[in-house]
């Protein structure tokens, strides 16, 4: 079962989405939070597999909550689920460490799919978000950190950008899963990013992938 924490200050949204997710055979909503502060406390206590995080909440917003969770638990997988596509929301959320970014206009089935994909190590971004990232990053001067990557590391970065998990990469390249994890760690270090999502953003920024 994929254990999920859902943080959203709208009770009806929590009730509706949680009911749908809990009806799935592989998803269990183990806790809910109605503000960012509670989300941080519960996340660090229960260590759920996935955290669904709203952005605009009372007392502490989703961006600050994401930062605090990632600061104390870097392995956390956080999916932003929000109505906002504003630049001042999208970029800070991803920079804070969010793994995926979904809109509340998405169907409940799409959120369930995003939970499964994120749990498997993929990063899910709405097409509108991807477009914003590409446009913004292309406006900035390139810093060619990727020139430090070996041919194998570049190959793995391309596969990460395709949304492949570590196991899928290992199977495709006929190498051990442990070896893939070492390469991924090296890639993140050389690109000076914190997670796979930011590595993919870097790849888009430098036109390394279509």
UniProtKB/TrEMBL annotation:
**What Pfam families is this protein classified in?**
GerE, Response_reg
Q: Which InterPro entries match?
A: CheY-like_superfamily (IPR011006), NreC/VraR/RcsB-like_REC (IPR058245), Sig_transdc_resp-reg_C-effctor (IPR016032), Sig_transdc_resp-reg_receiver (IPR001789), Tscrpt_reg_LuxR_C (IPR000792), WalR-like (IPR039420)
Q: Which GO terms describe its cellular component?
A: cytoplasm
Its main localization is cytoplasm
Q: Where is the Response regulatory domain?
A: 3-119
Record-listed 4-aspartylphosphate modification sites: 54
Q: Which PROSITE patterns match?
A: HTH_LUXR_1 (PS00622), HTH_LUXR_2 (PS50043), RESPONSE_REGULATORY (PS50110)
- Name it: DNA-binding response regulator
Looking at the record's lineage, which domain of life comes first?
A: Bacteria
Gene Ontology biological-process annotations: phosphorelay signal transduction system; regulation of DNA-templated transcription
One GO molecular function term of this record is: DNA binding
**Does the entry feature the keyword Nucleotide-binding, yes or no?**
no
Q: Where is the HTH luxR-type domain?
A: 142-207
What are the protein's UniProt keywords?
DNA-binding, Phosphoprotein, Transcription, Transcription regulation
Q: Which organism is it from?
A: Virgibacillus indicus
Location within or outside the cell: Cytoplasm
